[in-house]
Please model this.
Amino acid sequence: MDAPRLTTILDLVRWIGWAQRKAGEDWIRSREITMEQGFALGYLVQNPGAIQRDLAEITRTSPASVSSLLQGLERRGLVERRADSADVRSKRAYATPTGAELIAGFEAAMTAVDDTILAPLDQTERATLHALLTKVTAELPQPTR
Amino acid sequence: MDAPRLTTILDLVRWIGWAQRKAGEDWIRSREITMEQGFALGYLVQNPGAIQRDLAEITRTSPASVSSLLQGLERRGLVERRADSADVRSKRAYATPTGAELIAGFEAAMTAVDDTILAPLDQTERATLHALLTKVTAELPQPTR
DNA sequence: CTCTAATGGTTAGAGCTCTAACTGTCAAAG
DNA sequence: CTTTGACAGTTAGAGCTCTAACCATTAGAG
Model:
């Protein structure tokens, strides 16, 4: 039958992604940073000395983008970059104490956001959803992390 | 037992949304326009005379954003705007023949993209996924269309 | 050892998004 | 009929993203 669907699966997917972003922004707004900066900072706290290329990969973005993002964070003293002694091309990035302090709780807040969004689903449904989405992403390019 | 999940549901959701965007960009790049312009143009072909506020709503964006987006399209002669005769505040937007011609096939291409992404799932699984996502979005703010 | 290709980053330029402040128009109350 | 508030849209300023062009450094081939 396949009646024309008013809201496709991909519409719903984009919508949910958008909602997560918006919810996250509400938490982060007080810190005077952006979601992207929050993700980067959080990642650097978990992975001190990460190289820019890695950051570009896990955020599914470009090296150019990471470059300007980190420049902004560095300008504000939230991040530090030092060239790798073994390979000067690579720049290792670290969250400064200020940066780490600023982002403390971000991870937790995002987890809370996720939980709020998924609240309508019970554990079984979440497992099903996770399985289905994994099946889809398995055939996609680019790893998530 | 709730072992720490390496890739959360929301991670997967964002990933899929990103993949859709990228795939769409591949199609659209030859037209020298952006995804956003493509969506707007496509919407205006389907809904001639739409008002900017509506466009902002369905794209889950701001009036300011629509304003500049349409300015770009208008500058290139792909869109026309005329004030509503009954309410001069409102500006009704129309895709020009050139604009409509440019975007012809976009909708179909996007549907094809969606189908490719969802290829790993059979009809039953898609139905389940759609149901689960709908359950989630039912509790979210902002309608999709 | 040298030449070439790959690799990590950066810059420039353009588009999108947001917030905040502002214009002009319409509508409703008094 | 005026005043006040809601509403549609715009502009300015800043951040993010992308592509394309470009540096510097490193690795590999010969």
